[in-house]
């Protein structure tokens, strides 16, 4: 009964506020972080949240597989990045070269991409399965990198460069 009520009310996807803190939790729990870049006036972003991310959170099946957070790009909000600096969410999206909403990134606790990003929604019937493949890839990247050779789909074409996206020095 509570699940039906929760599904009707919708469980909001947590909005990222402090990625440094959430990254620490991800490292401690050996989990990847799913970052959903969204916009308030984006119907595809609503579809992503209502049809995919909310059910993932409600099911409980992802609690030990991934941390899910949303970043809203068109409301002037800010976020603490993985290095502890407070910045506008649009600046964070620029760092990751995210130009379209919705875009999903799968990152480790330091903000490094682990799996192929998902840009837009083109086939809703297959989208949930593709999210699952990317979650598995990101999780294997952290817990069992040797297993990546056996996974198909959603792997980065090349390993992410070792460059730092986040600096602890002020500009």
Describe the structure in your own words.
The structure is a single chain. Strand 1, helix 3 and strand 2 form a beta-alpha-beta unit. The strands form two sheets. This protein has a four-stranded mixed beta sheet with strand order 2-1-5-6, sandwiched between helices. Strands 3-4 form a two-stranded antiparallel sheet. Residues 1-8 have low confidence and may be disordered. It contains five helices and six strands, in the order ααβαβββαββα. With 171 residues, it is α+β, with helices and mostly antiparallel strands. The N and C termini lie far apart (53 Å). The protein has helices at 2-9, 19-29, 43-59, 89-95, 124-143, and strands at residues 33-38, 67-72, 78-80, 86-88, 103-107, 118-119.
Any chance you could write out the topology, listing elements then pairs?
Elements: H1 2-9, H2 19-29, E1 33-38, H3 43-59, E2 67-72, E3 78-80, E4 86-88, H4 89-95, E5 103-107, E6 118-119, H5 124-143
Parallel strand pairs: 1-2
Antiparallel strand pairs: 1-5, 3-4, 5-6
């Amino acid at each position: 009964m509570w699940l039906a009520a929760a599904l009707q009310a919708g469980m909001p996807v947590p909005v990222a506020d402090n990625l440094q803190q959430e990254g620490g939790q991800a490292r401690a729990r050996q989990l990847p972080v799913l970052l959903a870049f969204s916009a308030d006036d984006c119907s595809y972003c609503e579809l992503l949240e209502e049809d995919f991310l909310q059910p993932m959170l409600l099911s409980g099946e992802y609690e030990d597989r991934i941390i899910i957070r949303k970043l809203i790009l068109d409301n002037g909000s800010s976020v603490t990045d993985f290095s502890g600096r407070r910045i506008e969410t649009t600046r964070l999206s620029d760092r990751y070269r995210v130009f379209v909403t919705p875009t999903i990134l799968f990152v480790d606790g330091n903000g490094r991409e682990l799996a192929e990003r998902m840009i837009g929604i083109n086939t809703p019937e297959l989208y949930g399965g593709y999210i699952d493949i990317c979650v598995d890839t990101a999780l294997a990247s952290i817990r069992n990198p040797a297993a990546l050779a056996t996974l198909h789909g959603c792997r980065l074409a090349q390993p992410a460069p070792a460059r730092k996206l986040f600096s602890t020095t002020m500009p």
